[in-house]
Amino acid sequence: MSARSEPGVPARPTVRSSGSLLVDNIGELVTNAPGAEGDPLGLRRDAALLIEDGEVAWIGPARYAPAADRRIDADGAAVLPGFVDSHAHLVFAGDRAAEFAARMSGEPYTGGGIRTTVGATRAASDDELRATVGRLRGEAMRQGTTTIEIKSGYGLTVADETRSLRIAAEFTEDTTFLGAHVVPAEYADRPDDYVGLVCGPMLAAAAPYARWIDVFCERGAFDVDHARAILACGQAVGLGVRVHANQLGPGPGVQLGVELGAASVDHCTHLSDADVDALAGSATVATLLPGAEFSTRSPYPDARRLLDAGVTVALATDCNPGSSYTSSMPFCIALAVREMRMTPAEAVWAATAGGAAALRRTDVGRLARGARADLIILDAPSHLHLAYRPGVPLIRQVLHNGVPQCRP
Ligand code: NIG
Ligand code: FE
After folding, report:
1. Are residues 235 and 251 in the same domain?
2. Is the predicted pLDDT of residue 66 greater than 70, yes or no?
């Protein structure tokens, strides 16, 4: 947790590489180091990278590569930092494939299906939930995701939110308490009482397992006063703030997030000029989730408008059984380029360094001496191929803490 700026759960024991490992013969290395004008990715050609103790120990021209205990030949391929997926809802049971099919036949997405998943999640055992998180975490890793944030939000009782976060913490340090996802059916007539539960006993039980607090601030979920109260309670016990905002329509969520110093406001599909201005003058990241627009057949957010205003943009999957059942960051990169007016370089930056900024982490999302040795070797010569070859399994190998993971 040394590089972390906010409180969180105790770190899981980390498997780090031992000895030194040289990744050699890299055709194109994405470092995300601030580089020349027009090169947001800090690209280096014909590079090599040395890993020691799970960290990047050296980067330089391949011809000066030092000796190492082991070597991986990248064979001229592109190497990138592992993807940082800063928004995922992996603790759930059941699926909502029928709801997806209905949407593709014209039904709108309203978020109403969240309660269906709440019912299935409450009925599931710990081991069933753990197996689902593990399956999706493995799926994401095979697609290049080396850091992932995981939210609660399908339990909505003290016990079910707490166990969701306890299970999430077995898989990531970036756990988020989303007890304010929707008002559960049993509180439908008394939302104030539910907000009291979230701010009181639920937060007290959940906070030890959480680094972040999040609220779905949207018509049909939580209004701005409830959202502000809940987020302030979370801040008071040391949690960092993130907000689901402006997904289904215009609203106050984005500006609330900026007001509270949120690390990130997520979705940002419907933004006013004042929302964009607020973000541009702040340290809050706008996290865009194009899997949700794809799966709900909704208009995509305009990333170009945000980028041109100087806003820091992240891309994440929003992996969940309702609005975006994908764990694939390459898919989100391709959507962002094709549908949201991002360049391939901007989309790759947003999926790596942008995600790290959204989680306020400096140890991941970049490749430089001292960074965590989380990297992807592509089956392609350039990062451009991630958008140019959509749907193709381009992730040849993933290293996490310097440890090669199983090949896809
Ligand atoms: O980020 N918008 C709120 N929460 C999720 C959707 C959850 C669901 O539909 O189950 C989202 O899209
Ligand atoms: Fe979400």
Report:
1. yes
2. yes
